[in-house]
């Protein structure tokens, strides 16, 4: 297939087309000035160009929205004063280098705690990869505690929530989704969920619990969600606009999905 271009501000942006065994088409807009289409196998160039033209205004609005995008969240260096989030609030990374212990002869160690507006890491190893892994483990522990606390809260507040009984609820590292639920009634929640504000945490929990009732995204499913989280639509919009902030690693993407 010939290369497909999209006109944007007097330049032609290349469109990355990926073919898969699927029925729907997804347009992805990413910072900065990146466009990707995931399409069913054997879809013609003419059809793809027609889809692009049909969605020109949407694509332009998203590209324009990324003009002032703060990409510092995508370039983690694990150094002092980088911004991370905990329970929806910005926290500043502070690395306290313990030079009293020579990590060439001693086992690597770190101690992480919230102190005011900071996330402090006291460590004898300030290698970037080590700090990254240390923070991932710390967030996982925090997320496990927050998850159990919010489930207890939701059970006390909502009779509808109390009626839903999963087999297992676990915190798990997931790069692209906040949660999942399978047919065995096992729910997995993203290990970075403690980065989010409490309203978003509650929504994600309720969303996955309701999949035990409806293993789809039907009207009935969203009615079940709405009974427990009446303002869930506002939270979904907020998450889409702010997802990129709550990361240790991620590529922010805005999707537009539709059937052929």
From TrEMBL:
A Pfam family recorded for this sequence: YgjP-like
Organism: Intestinibacter bartlettii
Protein name per its UniProtKB record: M48 family metallopeptidase
Domain YgjP-like metallopeptidase: residue ranges: 23-242
Top-rank taxon, per record: Bacteria
């Amino acid at each position: 297939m010939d290369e497909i271009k999209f006109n944007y501000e007097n330049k032609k942006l290349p469109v990355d087309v990926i073919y898969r065994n699927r029925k729907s088409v997804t347009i992805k807009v990413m910072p900065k000035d990146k466009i990707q289409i995931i399409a069913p196998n054997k879809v013609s160039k003419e059809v793809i160009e027609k889809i692009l033209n049909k969605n020109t205004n949407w694509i332009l609005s998203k590209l324009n929205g990324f003009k002032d995008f703060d990409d510092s969240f995508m370039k983690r260096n694990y150094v002092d004063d980088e911004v991370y989030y905990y329970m929806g609030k910005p926290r500043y990374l502070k690395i306290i280098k313990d030079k009293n212990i020579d990590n060439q002869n001693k086992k690597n160690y770190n101690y992480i705690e919230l102190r005011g507006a900071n996330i402090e890491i006291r460590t004898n190893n300030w290698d970037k990869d080590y700090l990254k892994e240390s923070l991932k483990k710390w967030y996982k522990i925090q997320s496990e505690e927050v998850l159990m606390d919010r489930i207890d809260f939701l059970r006390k507040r909502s009779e509808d929530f109390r009626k839903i009984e999963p087999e297992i609820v676990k915190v798990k590292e997931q790069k692209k989704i906040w949660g999942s639920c399978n047919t065995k009634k096992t729910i997995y929640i993203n290990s970075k969920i403690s980065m989010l504000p409490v309203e978003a945490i509650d929504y994600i929990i309720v969303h996955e619990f309701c999949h035990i009732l409806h293993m789809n995204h039907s009207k009935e499913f969203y009615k079940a969600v709405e009974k427990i989280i009446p303002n869930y639509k506002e939270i979904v919009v907020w998450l889409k606009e702010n997802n990129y902030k709550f990361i240790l690693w991620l590529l922010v993407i805005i999707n537009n999905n539709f059937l052929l």
